[in-house]
């Protein structure tokens, strides 16, 4: 499947926000490098997922779009699809695990999405989704394992690479792999010297295991605070990651929480714990990135208020 990330960016440019790329003198001094943070927490629906959803719906033929769209999601893809559906004048049906953060459930409802809850397992999500699709006739828009989604997510790295500098590294979290796949393809096309590194919680390390084993290994019970990264890679995203990603680093739950606290208080931004995973990898492997230009994708800012207590002094 041939994708065109530059064309996708042109297609959705008037729908999404070109989010800021910021740097901080204190952080650069501490890390002994130059780190830029791509603030997708300031994106529409406060997450990068808006890019993929907007791209996928913009490419749907009118007769299919009129049927409505459906997906399963722990939150950000669900609300992105609901938001995009409202823009394109159709109905979104979202299957969500009962454990999904309240802020994400509320956001799906705000944008007019119809929610069906299920047990917090991939099997339950897929089975419930199938029932919804059969009942409504809606078109399934996968959260990550879909070329149009990958193409849309790649526009985030495309914007980074249009800023007039060539990063030595781009760090992105990895759950289902849509963002990491799109980032790797963007770098491969527009900045081949840039190394793309996936960052993953050790408690949900299917991408790490799959990458090093050379075969797809689904995640079991993913007990991580980074709720957006509990899903497994798909066959499409794994194939892209295996070919174009330089490495995958893992971090512990304690390292995620410490990095979440660190970035919140030093960068003064509200982010989700999933965003803290690449920050944790940056801190853990400080020597690896010393003297380098590093771009870190902060993927979203949809976090429940009670979870923020975990990072208070």
TrEMBL record:
GO biological process: D-serine biosynthetic process
One Gene Ontology MF term: threonine racemase activity
Cofactor: pyridoxal 5'-phosphate
Pfam families recorded: PALP (PF00291)
Keywords on record: Lyase, Pyridoxal phosphate
InterPro entries: TrpB-like_PALP, TrpB-like_PALP_sf
Domain Tryptophan synthase beta chain-like PALP: 14-300
PANTHER family xref list: SERINE / THREONINE RACEMASE FAMILY MEMBER, SERINE RACEMASE
Protein name: Serine/threonine dehydratase
Organism of provenance: Thermaurantimonas aggregans
